[in-house]
TrEMBL record:
Region listing for Regulatory domain, in residue ranges: 404-527
Names of required cofactors: Mn(2+)
Gene that this sequence comes from: leuA
Name by which UniProt lists this protein: 2-isopropylmalate synthase
UniProt KW Transmembrane keyword: no
């Protein structure tokens, strides 16, 4: 049965709305925060991916969050996805969200309130009648500002069924156009979500006039399974994030849900607007921005997702790829031929390869990236797609950084204490630092800290190879924590010490940006 929606018009029953919350719920992960420039780059990539709704942030959380949502709304002032701002049920939250999303061509306010007895008693300290009244007033206020209002029952999967029906009925009567039932703590199993959505559609008056939405967390590793079960039971909006990032164990992975729907049309006959060929580049962009790589065996986007090492598997794939591949690598953006460029390749070939990999750079960015490519080609025998992605992301994402690594020299040897000398550019000013350390990397980090003093502790230092061979680029991840704020940084280079220092400087830049971000006291996060 078709449904009429203020943002999407007539929606066929087999169409699934994709609500991406990478920029809101995903960014709540420790160490995953983004600055404005990074959020705008990610917003552009999500729009190119074909998402329907972009939850751009939590405008009341801070002035920085408000400005991010506002800037994204301005980005899509003429066309693009629905731009959504999250709010609690408080009037101030709703008005702030309305102001933030106002420039967008299509606007949504997403307001939420806890409905489980546990949350009402411990967190809200409100009675059921008070919660019902707050739902009515908050949705009505939001509806006065935008035509598209989503209401969420935080901890909905653990809410008393009869009371959940009353809450949903109240929200619909107040003007909500989308009803979201989150599994906020990742407690539910697929049968639970299927039962809840069927119950609401059967028992709640007006349920046939709204879109039901599934927002599942992955604490038990069931977020994607729960999302698919919700679709079977009548939900027609899925809320997910790129790479499955989010609070605690994360959210349902957008790429996994999208490819499950595409691959298993025989049992999940629903469609989305996702351009699946853009999945990999969007995943890689997020990993570079956040400084957090996906694990190698991650479904769809992990580097081993289409790798075959077993002799039996290799033999089968060589005869017929469908023996061991249920989808093609190209369908999600993997290239079939990764060895294409070398030190004799020109700018035109490099630009063409970037376009193939999904990058469009301005002249200055292209010049910087091409210079790094030629330097890399001089040091490596073979340059692979993964090498190009690593160096371009490392160059482009860092372009707005306050601190930039200009030069590094390390003197070390067996039986001697390493000494590192760094040349940095801090807010446009050249600065030098010299320091020793227990190892070459420690010395380089100490030299950077001499120039940019901080109290951050090193919580993680990880090195992995971008490709194979002794001349492979190293991709390093560094995690720093200062006053409870955690950030991850990444860097890539054929020299592991340089890659490590790039990652350290990247993390410092994120830490500097995060120092100014503050949230109001007792801020409650949605499910």
């Amino acid at each position: 049965m078709a449904l009429n929606h203020p943002s999407f018009g007539t929606i066929d029953d087999n169409r699934v709305i994709v609500f991406d919350t990478t920029l809101r719920d995903g960014e709540q992960s420790p160490g995953f925060s983004m600055n404005l420039e990074e959020k705008l780059r990610m917003a552009d990539a999500l729009a190119e991916l074909g998402i329907d709704v972009m939850e751009a942030g939590f405008p009341i959380a801070s002035q920085g969050d408000f400005e991010s949502v506002r800037s994204i709304a301005e980005r899509f002032a003429k066309d693009g996805p629905v731009v959504c701002g999250l709010s609690r049920s408080a009037p101030g939250d709703i008005l702030r969200a309305a102001e933030a999303v106002k420039p967008a061509a299509r606007q949504r306010i997403h307001t939420f309130l806890s409905t489980s007895d546990l949350h009402m008693r411990v967190k809200l300290r409100m009675s059921r009648d008070e919660v019902l009244e707050a739902i009515q007033k908050s949705v009505e206020l939001a509806r006065n500002h935008v035509a598209d209002v989503e209401w969420s029952a935080e901890d909905g999967s653990r809410t008393d069924p009869d009371f959940l029906c009353r809450c949903v009925e109240t929200a619909i009567k107040a003007g909500a156009t989308t009803i979201n039932i989150p599994d906020t703590v990742g407690y539910a199993v697929p049968e639970d979500l299927a039962r809840i959505f069927r119950m609401l559609r059967e028992r709640v008056p007006g349920a046939d006039g709204v879109i039901f939405s599934a927002h599942n967390h992955d604490d038990l590793g069931l977020a994607v399974a729960n999302t698919l079960a919700s679709l079977h039971a009548g939900a027609r909006q899925i809320e997910a994030t790129i790479n499955g990032i989010g609070e605690r164990a994360g959210n349902a992975s957008l790429e996994e849900v999208a490819m499950a729907l595409r691959t298993r049309q025989d049992v999940i006959p629903y469609s989305t607007g996702i351009i699946t060929q853009n999945i990999l580049k969007t995943s890689r962009l997020l990993a570079t921005i956040t400084g957090f790589d996906v694990q190698p065996n991650k479904a769809i986007v992990g580097r081993n997702a289409f790798a075959h090492e077993s002799g039996i598997h290799q033999d089968g794939v060589l005869k017929d790829k469908t023996t061991y591949e249920i989808m093609t690598p190209e369908s999600v953006g993997w290239a079939t031929n990764s060895l294409v460029l070398g030190k004799h390749s020109g700018r035109a070939a490099f630009r063409d390869k970037l376009a193939t990999l999904g990058y469009t750079l301005g002249d200055n960015q292209l010049n910087d990236a091409f210079k790094r490519f030629k330097d890399l080609a001089d040091r490596k025998k073979s340059v692979y797609d993964e090498d190009i992605v690593a160096l371009v992301d490392d160059e482009v994402v860092r372009i707005k950084d306050r601190v930039k690594l200009v030069g590094l020299t390390v003197a070390t040897g067996m039986g001697t204490r390493p000494i590192a000398s760094v040349a940095l550019e801090v807010d446009g000013e050249a600065c030098d630092g010299v320091a020793g350390g227990d190892g070459a990397v420690d010395a380089a980090f100490n030299a950077v800290q001499q120039v940019v003093p901080h109290r951050a502790e090193l919580k993680l230092y990880a090195v992995q190879s971008v490709t194979g061979g002794t001349d492979a680029q190293a991709r390093v991840t560094v995690r720093l924590e200062e006053d409870g704020k955690m950030v991850d940084g990444q860097g890539a280079d054929t020299d592991t010490i340089i890659a490590s220092t790039r990652a350290y400087v990247h993390a410092l830049n994120k830490l500097l940006a995060k120092r100014d971000r503050t949230a109001p006291p007792e801020m409650m996060r949605a499910g």
